[in-house]
């Protein structure tokens, strides 16, 4: 496969762009693979990539029921940060954030990582204390964050209204190297690199059953026929529970709809990401000029990739007070994704109760930022049977009461 | 927008009048139970793509809890029923069987 470069653009410009190759191959499934990954979202593709890159395991298939990156990976608001409270979270999210810094070079694919900085607004006294605590925890974890004053917030975000009557801005947790990336490009870049290593990415291939023999996985049933494997990675986000049931075990996961929306494109007005957790509103401006807005999850289980209208209303109503200019914006599109929520709002990276099966799920509303770190840890877990980054995220934490509680501050974790 | 009928007041409630309270008919485990039972009770949840039974509360109304049977894949509502029962009523189960032959939920099995 030819590398992308400035030279390649010049070459193709000279021949009317007739020489670009397909970024990844679309092969028919083989009879057997060493490893099958179910789900070609960011986490599944990153797992496959690091299996090849870090462990030389390339006889791998990634099976996707729809199109690659069409799940939550292509539906999120692309916020990347690592200012979590608990040590295991800070470790894996900071690993991910640092891999984002060099991802474009590593994959030879422009993922448009933009470390423009992320502010989490403190709009109640509880949040002030909570974020000061997080800033101290981050200092100990080696994650660079800072609690900043309302004046500094105003300098960074001129369009903000600091003294709204209901949600005044009392400060903010600022991570200078947080930001955004192009979500589709992350999936496409990993897919291209996996395909280049000889892995098979098979789209429109739904796993409909999991075959075990003597307590060990031997393969899967799909709509394209049975495929054998030695190891199976389940990386299907909102459908984790459905797939686990097919394999014969249960997960502590519930699937809910989470929505986002974008406005009409406007001139540049905000060059950082702002999260307002009290009111469940998140906003950044895309390179096209759209204001990208994310809200809270619906309260009930749902697989429809839509969401309740009143949640959008609540999100926008709250944002209008903090960003008065939002009231003049027309909204263009709204969509939903099915997020996989655990009881402690932390992910699961774990061996499953069946030999040879590994699960990676539970990233819920906040797993885009984690994609490279999660793939890195999951690959190690699948190749070696254990991984320091994944260790605390095992399924056994629910039996043993060792929760990684990230939900206390805001009730959500984006 | 989801609309459920409160079985106590008979009001057609739209979602913002209600609060979703998760899986219905949970069996509670107390002291003396095994780790596995506790984990199941506290964390493992039915999460079907299809027929589901839930607890809801008419918070901005009569304030009472009730049960609802819904399809999580289509958002169709099969019906609501009283909180004072350990199982969905037979006629509701039959109604679901007519629409979703062969449905299952925990140990419940539909006809067809
Ligand atoms: C509206 C919204 C906003 C969000 N905002 C942010 C944010 O700002 N920052 C952040 O960090 N995170 C955010 N998230 C969360 C983030 O999008 C997810 O945590 C992350 O993308 C999950 O990636 P994944 O690869 O695990 O899942 P997915 O991308 O959903 O991939 C799973 C894939 O598995 C496939 N699949 C399922 N079942 C089967 C089967 N049986 N056989 C074959 N394939 C199957 C699906 O089709 C899907 O493509 C947001 C999510 C949503 C919905
Ligand atoms: Zn009522």
TrEMBL record, chain A:
Keywords: Cytoplasm, FAD, Flavoprotein, FMN, Nucleotide-binding, Oxidoreductase. It catalyses: sarcosine + (6S)-5,6,7,8-tetrahydrofolate + O2 = (6R)-5,10-methylene-5,6,7,8-tetrahydrofolate + glycine + H2O2; sarcosine + O2 + H2O = formaldehyde + glycine + H2O2. Its cofactor is FAD; FMN. It comes from the Bacteria. Signal peptide: none annotated. Its EC number is 1.5.3.24. One of its GO terms (cellular component) is cytoplasm. InterPro entries: FAD-dep_OxRdtase (IPR006076), FAD/NAD-bd_sf (IPR036188), Rhodanese-like_dom (IPR001763), SoxB (IPR006278). Residues 35-79 form the Rhodanese domain. It is an enzyme of class 1 (oxidoreductase). It is found in: Cytoplasm. PROSITE patterns: RHODANESE_3 (PS50206). GO terms for biological process: tetrahydrofolate metabolic process. Its main location: cytoplasm. GO terms for molecular function: nucleotide binding; sarcosine oxidase activity. Belongs to the SoxB family. This is Sarcosine oxidase subunit beta. The gene is soxB_2.
From TrEMBL, chain B:
It comes from the Bacteria. Pfam families: SoxD. InterPro entries: SoxD, SoxD_sf. One of its GO terms (biological process) is tetrahydrofolate metabolic process. GO terms for molecular function: sarcosine oxidase activity. This is Sarcosine oxidase, delta subunit family. It comes from Thalassovita mediterranea.
């Amino acid at each position: 496969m030819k590398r992308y470069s400035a030279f390649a653009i010049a070459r193709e410009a000279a021949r009317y762009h007739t020489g670009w190759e397909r970024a990844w191959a679309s092969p028919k499934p083989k009879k057997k693979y060493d490893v099958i990954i179910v789900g070609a979202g960011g986490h599944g593709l990153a797992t496959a990539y690091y299996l090849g890159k870090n462990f030389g395991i390339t006889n791998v298939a990634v099976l996707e029921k729809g199109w690659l990156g069409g799940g939550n990976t292509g539906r999120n608001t692309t916020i990347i940060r690592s200012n979590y409270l608990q040590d295991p979270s800070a470790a894996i999210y900071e690993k991910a954030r640092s891999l984002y810094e060099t991802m474009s070079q590593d994959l030879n694919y422009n993922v448009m990582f933009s470390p423009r900085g992320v502010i989490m607004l403190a709009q109640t006294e509880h949040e002030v204390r909570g974020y000061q605590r997080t800033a101290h925890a981050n200092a100990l974890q080696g994650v660079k964050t800072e609690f900043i004053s309302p004046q500094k917030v105003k300098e960074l975000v001129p369009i903000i209204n600091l003294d709204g009557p209901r949600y005044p801005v009392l400060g903010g947790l600022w991570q200078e190297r947080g930001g955004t990336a192009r979500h589709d490009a992350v999936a496409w870049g990993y897919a291209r690199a996996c395909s280049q290593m000889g892995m098979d990415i098979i789209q429109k291939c739904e796993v409909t059953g999991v075959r075990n023999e003597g307590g060990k996985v031997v393969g899967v049933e799909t709509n394209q026929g049975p495929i054998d494997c030695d190891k199976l990675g389940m990386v299907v986000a909102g459908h984790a529970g459905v797939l686990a049931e097919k394999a014969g075990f249960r997960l502590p996961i519930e699937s809910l709809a989470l929505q986002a929306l974008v406005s009409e494109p406007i001139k540049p007005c905000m060059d950082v990401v702002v999260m307002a957790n009290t009111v469940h509103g998140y906003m950044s401006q895309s390179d096209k000029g759209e204001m990208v807005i994310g809200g809270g999850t619906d309260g009930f289980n749902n697989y429809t990739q839509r969401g309740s209208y009143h949640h959008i209303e609540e999100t926008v109503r709250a944002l209008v007070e903090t960003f008065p200019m939002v009231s003049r914006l027309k909204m263009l599109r709204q969509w939903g994704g099915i997020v996989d929520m655990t009881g402690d709002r932390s992910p699961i990276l774990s061996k499953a109760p069946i030999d040879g099966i590994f699960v990676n799920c539970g990233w819920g509303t906040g797993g885009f930022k984690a994609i490279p770190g999660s793939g890195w840890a999951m690959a190690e877990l699948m190749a070696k049977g254990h991984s320091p980054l994944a260790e605390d995220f095992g399924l056994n934490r629910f039996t043993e009461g060792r929760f990684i509680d990230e939900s206390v501050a805001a009730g959500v974790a984006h | 927008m989801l609309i459920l009928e409160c079985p106590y007041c008979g009001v057609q409630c739209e979602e913002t009048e209600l609060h979703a309270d998760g899986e219905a008919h949970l069996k509670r485990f107390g002291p003396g139970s095994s780790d596995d039972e506790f984990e199941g009770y506290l964390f493992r949840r039915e999460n079907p793509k299809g027929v589901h039974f839930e607890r809801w509360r008419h918070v901005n109304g009569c304030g009472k809890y009730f049960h609802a049977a819904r399809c999580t894949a289509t958002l169709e509502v099969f019906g609501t029923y009283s909180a004072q029962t350990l199982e969905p009523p037979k006629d509701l189960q039959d109604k679901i069987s007519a629409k979703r032959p062969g449905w299952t939920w925990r140990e419940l099995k539909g006809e067809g």
